[in-house]
Structure formats: C-alpha cells, structure tokens
Write a structure and sequence with these properties.
heterodimer, A: 389 residues, mainly alpha, abc type-2 transporter like fold, four-stranded mixed beta sheet, 15 helices, 4 strands, rod-shaped, B: 309 residues, alpha/beta, Rossmann fold, Alpha-Beta Plaits, 2 domains, four-stranded antiparallel beta sheet, 14 strands
Chain lengths: 389, 309
C-alpha cells in the first residue's frame, strides 16, 4: 500500500506542528488535574462550621451554664473584655462573629414564663451565626416549654432535662450518588478541552495529507500509474482514519494517566462514545478543509479559526452556563457545542435510564449528522474541483 | 505502438484538439513540436486518459487506452510538464514511491530506484528534499520518478522547461540513452533545437491540428527555403537592394542595422551569386553566415508565424 505508507510518512513529517498542540493540551490538562484534585479533596463530606463567639453572661445560674456547655458544641468561645469598644473592635476585625449577652435576671424571667430576650450583636451575612441562632432558639424555647408543662422543676433538673434532650447527635451523611463524581470533575474538563486539541491535531494532520494529494500535478501523475483512483482514495482515507484513531487513543490515554479513577465510573463509556462521535465529525471536517484549501501556507490560519472559534463560543474554555444565549445559539451551528453539551450532561448522570440518556444521545446523533454533512460536502467539493481542472 | 485517430477535445467553444491523428512506431523518439497552447499537453493527457475527449480513438500497444487500462499503464512512464514530486519526501523516497506504484517487490524496487538515481546522476542528492534542489536537479528527479520502473514507452512533456543548458544537455543525453536501450519515447517541446537534435520523427502541431509530420529532413524538404545568408555590409543603397532581390534563387532580402538577411531557394551556389553581386558593385562586406533552414522556418512557412509566438 504505497499511498497508505506515504500518508503515514507525511503525518510523521508534520509531527512538530501536531506535537505543539499536544504539548499545550497536556500542560493545560495537568494544570486542571492538579487544581481539580485539590478542589475535590476539600469538598468531600460535611463538617459543621463553628462560629467564633464572645459569650458574656451577666449572671451565672445552672441554666446559663448548661446553655454555655450546649453552645460550646457549635461555637468557639473567644474571651473578650466586656467593653463596648473592645467588643466592636473584635467584631470589626472578625475575632468573633457573634457577641451574645445574657442579661441579668434572664434565668428568673424564663422560669417565670417571661419573654426576655438574649442580646446579640453579629457580623452581617456571617453564615455560621445561623447555627448559633438555632442553638439559642432551640435551648431557650425548650426551656420555656419544660417550665410551662412542669412548673415544679428545679434549675438543675431543668438543665439536666435540656442536656439529655439536646444531646442527640444527628450524623450528616452526604447522600450523593457515587456516579455523579464526574460532575465538575477533571474528566469532564479534560474531555471538553480534548475537543480543541483533537480538532487542531486532526485538521492539521488530515488536511495536510489531503492538500498534498489534491495537487493537480501529483494526482494526475498518480493516475498515470496502474493504481486505480478508488484504491488510492481508500488508502488515503484508511491512513486518515488510522491517524484520527491514534490521536484519540493518545489523548484519552493521557486522561487515563492523569485520572485513572474516572475510568472506573459508569459515566466514562459515554464520555468515550461522545469523543468517538466527535472524532468522526472532525475527521470529516478535515476532509472538507483539505478539499477546499489549495496550499499548505493557509493551513495554520484556517486551523486556528476552526478550532479556537468554536471552542470559545461552545463552552470548551468557559462553561456554557456563563455564555449568553445569542452566543450559544450561534455555537449550536458547530459540532463542538453539541459535544460539550453531551459531556456536561454525561458528567451529571447518576441514573442511566433512557430519560437521562436521551439528551446525551440526541447530542451524539447531531454530531453524527454533522459528520455526514461534512462528508457529503467534501465529496461534492472534491468532485467539483476535479471537474473544474 | 501508439495509434491516435481523429482525436477531438473541446473546452466549450475552444477546440483544443481538432481531429488529431498520429502514429508512433516502436523504438523511435517521436517529437511533438508546437508553440505554447498548440495542444501538445492536451494531446498527451488525452492519450494517457487523464482527460476525457469528445471524439476519436487511442490505442497503445494495440489495445484501446482507457482510464482503467491498468495493464497498459504498467508499461508506460510519464514525465509531466510540471514537476510532480512530493515536497515531504527525499529524492530517494520520491523515486521509490512512484516506482512502488508499479513494482511491488521491495528488493526489485530498491535495485530499480538505485539505477534511476544513477541514470539521472542524482547520486549525491538522494537524501535531499525537493526544496533544496535546483531547477535542473528537480527536472532530473521528475524524470527519474517517471522512468524508474523501466517502462517500454515514455511520455516526456516538455521536460526541459526552465532548465539551464548543462542540465538540458544531460536530460537530452539521458533520453537518447533510454532510446538506445529500446524504449519508445514521445517527446513534446516548443524548443525546435531539442526536437531536431533527438527526435527521429516529428509532428508539428498548431491550434490542435497536425500541420506537418515526418523526419526533420522530410519536413525541411516541404518548404521552398533552401538557405539563409546573413552578410555584414558597410553601405548599400535602395537601388542595389532592389537589384539584389532580382537575382536568380533569391527569395527575400532585408537590410537591418548593416546586416543583410537573404533567403534563397533550394540551389547549390546561392552564396556565390550573392558574393559576386557585392564584389561587382564594390559593396564592402564583413562577416558572412550561411544557415540551412530550421524547423522554425518550416513552421513559419506553413503557418506564417514563429514557433515561439
């Protein structure tokens, strides 16, 4: 297969141009991988945040002491002298986010069924303060409830009852499906970004071969030989497909090296199927580019436009949710948009039923439609070009 | 070996080949001579089935030539007018590739490629890429790619265009050597000197038609011009020029920049008559040249225009 071998030689001769794209891709992927791993480690599980609190009690009763112990579960007490200025400074410099003051006579007021309130000063919009509010409300409302229904209780008894009642700990388990690990994961970013690298590599490689073989003099010279045009074209197509397959396998291989764990998720086969469909589409597009272009000098510019343009507007570099509707509408005319959309959906998949898979398959089907359209256009352009010669 | 009958090729209104008929015999160097645009390359492309034609028939080795006549194509070598080599391959790889389209056996091919490289004297450039080769070397590579598989019939379409005289001589010598080895050659050119030098039979084309054919001697015999005499004269007046034009055997006389350009008919003593005339009129003269007619003169007399118009 001399034509096939020649195609492989041409690929090898152009390895440097292709390698630049691979190198950039791998460098960015490694950066994403490192960031992604760091983010994931900090996001696993649930731990309740503790608020820094200045606890000032103007009286010391068993009930207030019990409250202090209860509060200690969800707050770190910071010792601040009881002066208005110092407390305000502590809040301003975020030494504490909550200043809680139990006024004198508060315990008696509670036991008498009164409605006296605990005084609080907080840093606005401090999320962890919500826990303190809940604790305050819970403790003292419960105390009021016991007092109302059992007026004979001593402070010690009441404190003990409250302690027992509030002692129950509710463990929080993140009930997230194992499969959704791919959401916002490295593999999703990698497969999205893969579209840019793969497009660049395939267009550079395949179009170059097509342009070389489309030179009128060379084609005529080849057709003077006993090789049939069908055989010649089949060998070129075979070599191009091999190149596309090797490029895809190599890029997916990098993903395996950087994040082998993601290959154990049930989402991965769908990522791979989507990547194969996208590869087919870009291979087809490369044939078209190869048939449209006449010289190699224009190659680099066309390649950049065809790879960077759709990548920017389709959510490869910036997630689709950050792009406005008009941009996305324009992007929907590019295969990259559908590829990224399918990836995003695959990454979120937890249940692999038809209802969830349907949008993924729709996107893949659109990619295959693009493939067929590019291939048909490529054939028409190629034939027209030859007739014009 | 090649039989072309009534070949017609039209590009819309333009008739590129107008009932072209020719026969090429085995073992000859057949020259297709004509100015640019006369239809030489179109004829070659039609004969090789690279172009479809509107009418006519082409037979090579006694069989009808067609795009899928692969058994015929196997025996044919083609050297295109434009250099058709791969920029991505070295000299050796290019020849090996084109040879590989005909010869599958790797060992046999290696031998043939070496032979072709040696034949076109590119031994020192085998690892060079085409970009690094001069125009002449590139033409030689183009030829090597066309002949490496040892074809019985070779088409050379203007293989010396834009080539320096040294490379041109090497190419022409090579073609003669191939012919000596028994290869039939169809050679197209608009350089009449080349065609005259190497071709055993010549067809002169113009506007897609054959206007004359035969050996160079036969072609020259077709015209009335016998000799072209150029004389450097120091002073001659109009009356003397008129008298010169009336001398027997003289066809035309032109006086440009102290040079007399005299064309005479066929005869044995035309130069003597002219010199006698000049001596008798005491017209001083310097250098004298006498030339036999060229193929350009043949073309000029038949078409009324120069070959390189």
């Amino acid at each position: 297969m001399p034509v096939f071998n020649l195609c492989l030689k041409i690929f090898r001769r152009n390895w440097l141009a292709v390698f630049i794209y691979v190198a950039i891709f791998v460098a960015i992927s490694v950066t994403i991988a490192i960031t992604s791993v760091h983010d994931q480690s900090s996001g696993n599980g649930f731990t309740q945040q503790k608020a820094k609190i200045a606890f000032i009690s103007e009286e010391k009763t068993p009930l207030t002491e019990g409250f202090r112990q209860e509060l200690a579960k969800h707050a770190d007490f910071v010792s601040i002298p009881d002066s208005k200025e110092q407390l305000q400074d502590a809040l301003f410099f975020r030494q504490v986010t909550y200043v809680l003051r139990i006024p004198k006579g508060f315990t008696k007021n509670i036991l008498d069924g009164g409605t006296m309130q605990i005084e609080k000063t907080i840093v606005p919009e401090s999320v962890e303060n919500a826990y303190i509010d809940i604790d305050v409300q819970q403790y003292w409302n419960l105390a009021r409830l016991y007092v109302r229904h059992d007026p004979g209780l001593t402070q010690e008894q009441l404190t003990e009852r409250l302690r027992q009642n509030l002692d129950g700990d509710t463990p929080v388990r993140m009930n997230v499906h194992e499969h959704a690990k791919t959401k916002d994961s490295f593999s999703m970013y990698y497969f999205n970004f893969l579209s840019y690298a793969l497009s660049a590599i395939l267009i550079m490689g395949i179009s170059t071969v097509m342009i070389v073989f489309n030179k009128q003099d060379l084609r005529r010279r080849i057709f003077c030989s006993p090789s049939s045009p069908l055989k010649v074209n089949l060998q070129i197509i075979l070599a191009d497909l091999l190149f596309a397959a090797v490029a895809l396998v190599a890029l997916v291989g990098f993903c395996f090296l950087l994040d082998a764990k993601s290959f154990t998720t049930p989402n991965m086969p769908y990522f791979l199927v989507n990547a194969v469909a996208f590869t087919a589409c870009i291979t087809s597009l490369s044939f078209l580019v190869g048939n449209l272009l006449n010289n190699l000098s224009a190659m680099s510019g066309v390649c950049n436009i065809l790879t960077l343009g759709p990548s920017f507007i389709s959510g490869v570099f910036v997630p689709q949710e950050f792009l406005n509707d008009t941009v996305l509408k324009i992007a929907s005319f590019t295969p990259t948009y559908w590829y990224v959309q399918a990836n995003t959906k695959i990454a979120k998949l937890t249940d692999f039923d038809w209802q969830n898979l349907r949008p993924v398959f729709t996107s893949t089907l659109i990619l295959l439609t693009f493939t067929a359209a590019f291939a048909a256009l490529s054939l028409v352009v190629g034939k027209r070009k030859r007739l014009m010669e | 070996m090649i039989h072309v009958k009534n070949l017609v090729k039209r590009y819309g209104e333009l008739v590129a080949l107008d009932h072209l008929s020719l026969d090429v015999r085995e073992g000859e160097i057949f020259g297709l001579l004509g100015p640019n645009g006369s239809g030489k390359s179109t004829a070659i492309n039609c004969i090789l089935s690279l172009l479809s034609f509107d009418k006519g028939e082409v037979e090579i080795f006694g069989k009808t030539m067609a795009p899928d006549a692969y058994d015929l194509k196997r025996k044919i070598g083609v050297v295109m007018q434009n250099v058709a080599v791969f920029e991505e391959l070295t000299v050796y790889e290019n020849i090996d590739y084109f040879c590989g389209l005909y010869i599958r056996n790797r060992e046999e091919r290696r031998h043939l490629v070496e032979e072709a490289i040696h034949f076109v004297e590119l031994d020192d450039f085998r690892k060079f890429y085409p970009k690094k080769l001069s125009g002449g070397l590139l033409r030689r590579l183009n030829i090597a790619c066309g002949i490496a598989h040892k074809p019985k019939l070779i088409f050379l379409d203007e293989p010396t265009v834009a080539v320096d005289p040294q490379s041109r001589n090497k190419i022409l010598e090579g073609i003669e050597r191939l012919n000596e080895q028994g290869v039939t050659i169809v050679y197209t050119s608009h350089y009449m000197e080349e065609v005259e030098q190497i071709c055993s039979r010549i067809v002169i084309m113009d506007k897609g038609r054959v206007i004359a054919s035969g050996t160079k001697e036969e072609l020259k015999a077709m015209i009335t011009l016998g000799e072209k005499i150029t004389v450097e004269v120091f002073s001659i007046n109009e009356e003397q020029l008129s008298q010169l034009r009336t001398l027997p055997g003289i066809v035309s006389v032109e006086h440009i920049d102290r040079q007399l350009y005299i064309k005479s008919g066929k005869g044995s003593n035309n130069l003597e008559i002219v010199l006698d005339f000049l001596k008798k009129r005491q017209i001083g003269f310097g250098r004298i040249y006498s030339e036999l007619p060229t193929l350009n003169d043949v073309f000029l007399e038949i078409t009324g225009k120069q070959l390189r118009d």
